[in-house]
Specification:
Layout (H helix, E strand, L loop, with lengths): L2 H23 L7 E8 L2 E2 L4 E6 L6 E4 L5 E3 L12 E8 L1 E5 L5 E5 L11 E5 L3 E3 L2 E3 L2
Length: 137
C-alpha cells in the first residue's frame, strides 16, 4: 500500500470518527425519569396513553400503560423521561368496537376532565420519580 494512500485513508478515518463522535455527543435536554401507575375507579387502567405537556411549551413526553396500569414516560425514541418543571397531564383510553358492517367506532372511556379538559397537573424535579394517577368516574 502506498504512503499517499495510507495517509489519505488515515485522514478519512479520522474525519468520520470525528463526525460520529460529535453526533453521538448531543443527548438533548436533561430529563427526569418518570414512572407510575394509572387506576380508574380503583382498578388498573390498561392500554392508556399518558402524555405530559410542559407549561413552557417545550417537547412533551408520552407513555402507555401495561395490563397492570404501569407506565414509563419517553421523551424521544432514545431518551427516557420528561423535562423537569410543571406539566399538564392528559390521559386517554380510546377503544375500538366493530359493528355488523366491520366499521370500527372509537370510544373514550374516561371523563373529559382527564383529556379534553384535563385538570391534571404535576411538578417534576430532576431525578427519578413515581407519579401515580387514581382517576374517578
Amino acid at each position: 500500500m502506498s504512503e499517499k494512500y495510507s495517509k489519505g485513508l488515515l485522514v478519512l478515518t479520522a474525519f468520520f470518527s470525528l463526525i460520529v463522535g460529535i453526533s453521538g455527543c448531543h443527548q438533548g435536554p436533561a430529563t427526569a425519569r418518570v414512572t407510575g401507575r394509572v387506576t380508574f375507579d380503583g382498578k388498573p387502567l390498561p392500554s392508556a396513553l399518558v402524555e405530559f405537556f410542559p407549561e413552557d411549551g417545550s417537547r412533551s413526553s408520552v407513555g402507555s400503560t401495561n395490563a397492570e396500569g404501569f407506565y414509563e414516560l419517553k421523551f424521544s425514541a432514545t431518551a427516557i423521561g420528561a423535562i423537569p418543571g410543571r406539566h399538564q397531564v392528559v390521559i386517554r383510553t380510546v377503544t375500538g368496537e366493530s359493528d355488523s358492517e366491520n366499521k370500527v367506532t372509537r370510544k373514550e372511556i374516561l371523563p373529559d376532565k382527564y383529556h379534553k379538559k384535563s385538570e391534571l397537573t404535576v411538578e417534576l424535579k430532576s431525578g427519578k420519580q413515581v407519579v401515580n394517577f387514581d382517576l374517578t368516574p
